Every structure is written in C-alpha cells, then in structure tokens.
Amino acid sequence: MLISREHSLLLIVDIQAKLAPAIFAADSVTANAVRLISASDQLAVPAFVSEQYVRGLGHSLEAIQEAGRHARFFEKTHFSCAAEPGVLDLLRAAGRGQVILSGTETHVCVLQTACGLLEAGFQVFLVADAASSRTPANRDAAIERLRAVGVHIVTTEMVLFEWLHKAGTDEFRSLLPLIK
User: Fold this and answer.
1) Which helix (H) or strand (E) holds 73?
2) Residue 166 falls in the annotated catalytic set
3) Residue 174 domain-assigned?
4) pTM flag (> 0.90)
5) Annotated catalytic residue 18
6) Is 2 contained in some domain?
7) Using an 8 Å Cβ cutoff, are 14 and 51 in contact?
8) What total number of domains does the chain contain?
9) Which listed residue (14, 81, 115, 129) is catalytic?
10) Among 55, 19, 15, 31, which residue's Cα sits nearest to residue 134?
11) pLDDT tens figures, 51-98
C-alpha cells in the first residue's frame, strides 16, 4: 500500500532541545524530520508536532520550529500522543487515515504513539531514518516490534516520492532540493 498525500498527515514526536543531544544519529534524524515537515508544508499535508513535558525537555529544536511554521504544535505528558486528551480528536479532524510518524525516542513515545494510533484505526508509517533513541539497540528493537504489530516501516525518500506520485511536475521540481 502506498502513502497518499491526500490521505496522510505527518506527526513528529518530541525532537526537543534537551533530549536531542542524547539521541543516536540526532543530526540525521532532525534533518530528515525537517525534510518531511518542509515537504508537508509545500504539498498541503497537515503536520503536527508533539512536545513532551516542555518544562523539563524544552521546546522542539529550532530547525523543527522553523520548518514547521504551519504545523500544529502541542504539549503532552503522556508518552503516547494517542493517550493525551484531545490529540486523537485533533488528528481525526484532519480527515486523514494515514499517519506518517517520526521522532524520538523510538522505543518509548514513538512506539506507544504508533500502537495507540493503530488501535484508533489509523494506518501508521514509521519513517525509520527520521526516528531514533538514545541507543541503536533500543531503536532497532522498537522498529522490529512496530513492524510485527503492523506498522509500515518506510524512509524519508519513500514518503517524499509517494507524496509526489510522479516526476515532471512543478511540485516535483520544488521538492528536488529536499531530495538532493
């Protein structure tokens, strides 16, 4: 099953100032999340960004905030976005059944969010190169577990090309800098 920009939304989980320095491959994860949120803005795909316990972990990294100027940011204290009061309603209001999911930490907030979204009836696509944990072992175990419960494991470029659907369009040309 392919990702459709008309049927998907983007959810970036907790790429925050005080947590990011401890994350394995944080620079790459952040860069890919920025690519996703930038593309979502250009292609009118609704984007949402969660921030876990802002008082302790700080806001989203500046790069995420800048790229996500049209995204909907929300704070949470539950590990799962789906468990946070009002968030499922917020996501459902977008009218999209596919959730493109990225963020940190893969084995905690991302995993619990993905499972909650599946239970709520969403199709979930984890962007593996835009998700990580403090250790590669935790990240890898989470991806394996998520695959086993029915989450589709994808990459940033898979999402971008599936959102675009074809070459030779103005949209394709406008996203080329994000692809190259």
Assistant:
1) strand 72-76
2) no
3) yes
4) yes
5) no
6) no
7) yes
8) 1
9) 14
10) 19
11) 999 998 999 999 999 999 999 999 999 999 999 999 999 999 999 999
> Considering only CA atoms, which of 144, 84, 150 is closest in space to residue 115?
150
User: Which domain covers residue 61, as residue numbers?
Assistant: 8-179
Residue 14 falls in the annotated catalytic set:
yes
Give the span between the Cα atoms of 175 and 129, in whole angstroms. 18
Residue 171 near residue 42, CB atoms below 8 Å = yes
- Proportion of the chain in helix, strand, coil states, percent, rounded to 5: 50, 20, 30
What CATH number is attached to the domain comprising 44? 3.40.50.850
Catalytic: which of 81, 109, 115, 129?
A: 109
Q: Are 170 and 177 in contact (CB under 8 A)?
A: no
More confident: 82 or 177: 82
Q: Select which of 76, 81, 115, 129 is catalytic.
A: 76
Calculate what percentage of the chain has a pLDDT beyond 90.
Answer: 91
The distance of Cα 42 from the centroid of its chain, to the nearest Å, equals: 16
Does the residue 1 lie in any domain? no
Is residue 3 one of the residues assigned to a domain? no
